[in-house]
Amino acid sequence: MSNVSIMDDLEKEILDLVPQDIVDRLNQICDQLEFHHGSKERDQLRKALLFAARAHHGQTRVSGEPYITHPLEVMAILTKLNVDMITLIGALLHDVVEDTGVTVDDVAREFGPVAGLLVEGMTKLAALRYESKSNEERQAEYFRKMLLSMAQDLRVILIKLADRLHNMRTLEALPQKSQRRIAEETLEIYAPLAHRFGIGRIKMELEDLSLKVIDEVSYRRIADRVAMRRDDREDALSSFMAPLTERLKQDGIEADVTGRAKHFFSIYNKIKKRGKSFEEILDLLAVRVIVGSVSDCYRTLGVVHSLYTPILERFSDYIAMPKANMYQSLHTKVMDREGRVVEVQIRTHEMDLVAEVGIAAHWQYKEGAGGRDGRDNLNEYYRWLRQLIEGSKEEATSEEFMETLKINLFTDEVFVFTPRGKLIQLPKDATPIDFAFAVHTDIGLRVLGAKVNGRMVPLDYQLKNGDSVEVLTSGSAQPRVEWLRLVKTHRARSKIKKHFKQQHLEDSIRIGEEMLKRELGKHRKKLSNTELSDLVNAFGHESTEGFHAALGGGDLSLHAVMRRIIGDSQTEAEKDQGESALEKLRFLKGPKKESVGVRVKGADNLMLAFGNCCSPLPGDRIIGFISKGRGITIHRTDCPNISELSRDKERLVDVEWAVSPDERYNARLRLVTEDRPHMLRDLAEILTKQDVGIVEMNLRTEGSLGIATLVVKVRNLAHLSKLRNKVSKVKGVVQVERIGIADVAEKVV
Fold this sequence. Notes:
This protein is an alpha+beta fold.
């Protein structure tokens, strides 16, 4: 751009605000932009540079550098991704609202509403107020906000990743403890996020910079040994690439053949997680072949396999079946003439661009033939993001949300087929339950069993590439809480949790009504219909039922409600009295009933009952839930009822098992079996040998399947586990699961 890199009427003012070396850096970055943007856009960029320089004038980073160096380097990172001009402007201005007196409206007025939206998205992340929240809650809230900002415009994540990358490059200015925390967060969230959006260039550098902080000794050792082996590796690559390049030329295929360097974290990961030696990894050579068209990709594959011996089961076609982050390439491993393993990646120039810059490439498709493909790919990213946001609403705790986020950022996939041949893409280790929800929510909610490649499999079966999956459904089948431990997709997890939440809505309404009525009675207070309506509106609910459900389900604090009704002083005084939940609920005491084998800690002679929803057994972890008029109901700690109500600590009491050797407890099982002769006889024989009494049995056949629902008497959890193990070994039994409330399956066609 030479002498016109900055307009004459702006250059003097910029020099008044920043040192000459920063202006030189601006010119250097602008020189790189000349090939991508017209002069009008460059003028806009200069205007943004001046705007940012004015806003950040006098501010410095922790390192002592002028603050303007940070947004400038964030913009420089994004120029390498060839993003559009509005993203570059957003990068330059991304901190002006957070750190200065500039407003979002100021940005929108000067640079347009999209720039304002991008800056607002970044500002909301920085403006969070955490008050007394734990580190886990802070982190979860931050990433929830980030997902919502991304959902408005995905260019927010491009700026955020560039922002994180520059911070990682300059991390040494921070205390050691802060460096490690930021590096761990980068490795757990930001690098996988860059991978999920296909930005390989940023992902690899984030991983290497994180490794340098987290395990500097290993980082230095890898760096030194890679340097020592460089000459040998380059010689081996040359001997492999020379005949390949010549053969491609002979066949009329224009190709760019290069050696592909492994980044340090990849080497580190294979040593740590795959148990490989350093020598094995460095001996694994990598070559990339870039060609002009998809047909040339497959022709090149044929050339590679004709020159070198392919290794069986080491071929992946990501062109026909792209990864979730839109990555496309042919991958193969072959043996060279010296017996060394060589990885070969083959793709087009467009595929290579997407592999390097991922989602950033799709803003270049605004014009020309690629426009529709670019928009379609962006829609796929938005669809994934919307599903993740929707699923996160069902996560009750910060830990659950962060775990779901981390799982769904990793994109190792399997490709499976419906019986009609439709391709379904799922995460690695996905189960038939994930498959069912991917096809349709109603199918997922009615899963009874599954066939893979024509054979019955259990629902925890891990699907493999190429599997043909058929889901067997039932009109009365219900999701099981155990499924939450089996599923891998956020879609399946969120739909299962939503089902449980809706299922227990009526209970939550009733409990909320009882809780409020009890507290009002303690204060000799009654609410008129008008007062109740005002209270409902004050807490942002549209109906009384929704208000009571939120209260009974733990989403709304009873203390906050009472504080609104009677004021702070009375509620605080009550809190200071230190009454326990049991002392407050003496009405639960009643005539002593036959022992149920459970003791309430700190109290005797209370009404106790087991929850039919989960049917606890000695050996299960249990908790008591106070319910007016029904005493204390004993639940398993993983019962969906308890997970909905656990936030209301007043209603939960500690309980413990107090069983005698002769006591027996009801347990419910559901069996899915092949419909074969003598199956019932074989099952009865197992039950007899295991000293199990049958309380109830329901049997029916569904085509080639038999479904049995049993209520049996067992001593404890260990007894039930042994029984399930024995039953699962009976010929033709394909599934044995413990259930809460007995149900009879009905096949739905």
